[in-house]
Write a structure and sequence with these properties.
Blueprint lengths: L5 E11 L5 H11 L3 E7 L2 E9 H13 L6 E10 L8 E3 L20 H7 L43 H8 L20 E5 L13 H10 L4 E4 L4 E6 L3 H11 L7 E3 L3 H5 L6 H7 L6 E5 L16 E5 L4 H10 L3 E5 L11 H8 L5 E5 L11 E7 L2 E8 L9 E2 L8 E3 L9 E4 L2 E4 L9 H17 L6 E5 L5 H8 L4 E5 L1 H12 L6 E11 L5 E9 L4 E7 L2 E2 L5 H4 L1 H11 L17 H13 L5 E2 L2 H11 L11 H9 L12 E3 L4 E3 L2 H12 L4 H27 L3 E5 L6 H13 L3 E4 L10 H11 L2
Bound molecules: zinc ion (2 copies) and fe (iii) ion (FE).
The site of one zinc ion has 7 residues, from helix 3.
Length: 767
């Protein structure tokens, strides 16, 4: 065909192609190539036809994916040749084709773009200092969606009628706000207001500029509940020791680190040490919280992240944040607006009630939040010679992007997830949508949020589950939810198998691998509590080929809250029937309780057997006197890592005992060595370091043996304990040095936030 022959094609695109400026882009591209035809949204994405010279059509097809708008993602592009019609009417953007079930994907919420920021700061712009400025390249998406298709009427912007100026932008294909569903301005859009927590709305004349007034109050030491994108934050000055202490007290007995917000990268650099990778993630349009090493001179109250070497920092991601941080002039604590253990507040009436006693002021706005969404959390780790991001909490900015499984699901699925750090997932075909972080399913609030989230995802992702996948733990509320779903088949998946399958799926790996799953706790099919497992297998099945030395959890769940109990259990396991109360624990535990727990550890009453790696870290942290009791999951392990001497070296020996059907990693040797070194007066920092390095090196050695024996070449590192950077990096490097292919959970969290993906992946591999 000559370059000058006429050619007409139809192109069908799927992916994130609606609500991201795709049609105007197609319009501009076609017009620049003198092509005729049309483009429109349909139920699967975007459909278009173009006609013109064959050479121009070919260039159009090249440039279409290459020059797509920043937020667009093309998952499939199908081209069909048509007979030229001699069309010459130019190029048109048509209305949406009426469709059946929608396949179009909804974009996550996106941080304010540079063009909008420039307008926000331009006194001559009609949106100068307007806290809700957005365009097709940025702004709220997932959190305002109530249904599909993604259309203003089905978002929480439905109640705002566009003024003439906004309407003109919205209808102009050449405008940056063409079909920007949340388009708004000070005349017609949402408004911010500042409310006194004690007096409510009835307060004296509201300030002209609510954001400026809130910033002034923050500077003066107030705690302000700030309504954001996916919920409320509690904000205060990060450098004010007194107000941070007050915030801690009001939120409840809890040591969980608070996240910070800095106005820009320069300001963030004064708080934490940032490499190029951290800065890139910090400034990305997803804008997660980035964990990075705290600077010793950071102007931050210690209570923000006591016992940690890292701080979690994020940059402003809404126009309101940009204004607030610029006006405040100091970094702010921005922590989830909740009482300990409750989900982040998002409903206005509920927030007013729940946060009234926590905040002095409320910085509110009148755009409803459709779906509660927490800030995501990312950390950079060194793997295979590169510094790469690892997701620790996947929520705002990433959800609801789907993930493609290596193999299709035989039927639509709901993966109910675990109990702690719960996320759920829905899937059909090869697509799985992992939902936003829900939190720990342990109270009415989170359970409600879980149920609503599942219903919402089934609707917006058009998934009608025929299978409900659940954890084997009979008492998890997520398992109970799976049981109560009617008209679905059920599939139980072992917790650590789900971790293994999630990591394999993330890497698109189909073959068998050896999974090192170091985790908190999970229900083992043998009735014990698993959590330090070497599992050989794939998404379909697994074999337990190794595990940590089993010990008792004295008092069951109490041993999770009180790591000193695990220290006692490990000392008993070391052969000391009545271990003396270690010096390091004397100020935390009385002799009678210690003796009683030792009895539980020996006799086993209400004290299940566990192989949990998380509990081993707890035991060592307690043994060193670092943490006898925790207020949140993983606290003792995180503090043990923070306490460890950064200098590496020879770790404690970790012998491997060959049992009938599995290798047992005899961690008693680690405990004995730590106990003896502590008694000999070695600093806790050295002991913590030698413990980490010994566990890492010993596990690597065990893996090498199993790989050789089974003819495997791949090791998966997953489970919540691999949030421990020292353990992760040392093991990954140790395995790679022996030519082993190492797969690490990074796109989805290694912790229980990844379990739902693993459950879905197991369903895909099950007949
Ligand atoms: Zn924008
Ligand atoms: Zn307007
Ligand atoms: Fe887990």
């Amino acid at each position: 065909m000559s370059q000058e022959s006429p050619r007409r094609i139809r192109v069908a695109l799927s992916g994130i192609v609606q609500g991201v400026g795709f049609r105007p882009f197609v319009h501009r591209l076609a017009a620049s190539l003198a092509l005729h035809g049309f483009v429109r949204n349909d139920s699967r994405g975007v459909e278009l036809e173009v006609e013109g010279f064959a050479g121009a059509v070919a260039r159009f097809l090249e440039r279409l994916p290459a020059e797509r708008p920043p937020l667009a993602r093309i998952d499939s592009l199908e081209v069909e040749e048509l007979s030229p019609t001699g069309a010459c009417g130019g190029f048109a953007i048509l209305g949406s084709a009426a469709g059946e079930a929608t396949e179009a994907l909804i974009s996550p919420d996106i941080a304010t773009c540079d063009a909008c920021l420039a307008e926000l700061r331009d006194p001559s712009d009609r949106r100068f200092r307007y806290p809700f400025i957005n365009c097709t390249d940025c702004g709220p998406r997932f959190t305002i969606v109530r249904g599909v298709p993604y259309d203003r009427a089905l978002t929480t912007m439905a109640g705002f009628t566009m003024c003439d100026s906004c309407r003109a932008e919205y209808e102009d294909p050449a405008n940056r706000r063409f079909h920007a569903q949340p388009n708004a301005c000070p005349v017609c859009g949402p408004r911010a207001r500042l409310v006194d927590a004690a007096r409510g709305d009835a307060a004296a004349a509201p300030p002209e500029d609510a954001v400026r007034a809130a910033a002034a109050a923050l500077r003066a030491g107030a705690i302000v509940a700030v309504k954001g994108l996916g919920g409320y934050h509690l904000a205060c000055r990060a450098d004010d020791v007194a107000v941070v202490a007050t915030l801690r007290r009001r939120k409840g007995r809890d040591d969980k680190p608070f996240a910070l917000m800095a106005r820009d990268v320069q300001s963030a650099r004064r708080l934490v040490r940032l490499g190029a990778e951290e800065e890139a993630i910090l400034s990305s349009r997803e804008r997660p919280i980035v964990l990075a090493a705290r600077r010793s001179d950071a102007p931050v109250a210690d209570a923000v992240a006591a016992g940690r070497r890292e701080l979690g920092v994020m940059l402003p991601y809404t126009p309101l944040h940009h204004l607030l941080l610029a006006d405040a002039g100091v970094p702010l604590v921005m922590t989830s607006g909740n009482v300990s253990d409750e989900p982040i507040a998002y409903d206005d009436a509920e927030a007013a009630e729940r946060l009234r006693h926590l905040a002095d002021l409320f910085l509110l706005h009148d755009r409803p939040i459709g779906t509660r969404t927490d800030d995501s959390v990312v950390r950079v780790v060194s793997l295979g010679g590169a510094r790469v991001p690892m997701m620790l909490r996947r929520s705002r900015g990433y959800v609801p992007l789907p993930f493609e499984l290596p193999d299709p699901l035989p039927r639509p699925v709901l993966a109910c997830g675990p109990e702690l750090k719960c996320t759920f997932a829905v899937g059909r075909g090869r697509r799985v949508w992992v939902g936003h972080h829900i939190g720990d399913l342990e109270n009415y609030e989170t359970l409600r949020s879980y149920r609503e989230g599942i219903a919402h995802f089934e609707r917006i992702c058009a998934v009608a589950p025929e299978t409900a996948v659940h954890d084997l733990h009979p008492d998890y509320l997520s398992t109970a939810y799976a049981r109560e779903r009617e008209g679905v088949a059920r599939l139980g998946v072992q917790h650590h198998h789900a971790h293994l399958a999630a990591c394999l799926a993330e890497h698109g790996a189909r073959g068998s691998a050896l999974g090192v799953i170091y985790d908190g706790t999970g229900y083992g099919p043998d009735g014990t509590v698993w959590g330090g497992e070497l599992l050989a297998g794939d998404a379909r099945s697994f074999e337990r080929v190794g595990h940590l030395w089993p010990v008792r959890m004295p008092g069951g769940a109490a041993a999770i809250r009180e790591p000193w109990r695990m220290a006692c259990a490990w000392l008993v396991a070391c052969g000391d029937e009545d271990p003396p109360l270690p010096m390091s624990l004397r100020e935390h535990v009385d002799a009678a309780s210690w003796a009683q727990v030792a009895r539980l550890a020996r006799g086993g009453f209400a004290s299940p057997v566990t192989t949990s790696a998380g509990r081993l870290f707890d035991a060592v942290a307690a043994l060193l006197g670092l943490r006898a009791r925790v207020t949140y999951e993983g606290q003792a392990a995180a503090e043990l890592e923070a306490a460890a001497d950064p200098e590496g070296g020879e770790g404690y020996a970790l012998p491997v005992v060959a049992a009938a059907d599995a290798r047992i990693l005899d961690a008693r040797a680690l405990i004995r060595a730590a106990r003896d070194d502590a008694a000999a007066g070695l600093p806790a920092a050295r002991i913590a370091a030698r413990f980490h390095d010994g566990l890492a090196d010993g596990t690597v050695a065990a893996c090498l043996g199993i790989l050789a024996e089974r003819g495997l070449d791949t090791v998966v590192l997953s489970g919540g304990v691999f949030q421990n950077v020292r353990l992760l990096e040392r093991m990954a490097a140790g395995l790679a040095a022996h030519g082993v292919r190492v797969l690490v959970s990074r796109v989805f969290p290694p912790n229980d936030g990844g379990v739902a993906l693993g459950q879905a992946s197991v369903a895909a591999a099950s007949p």
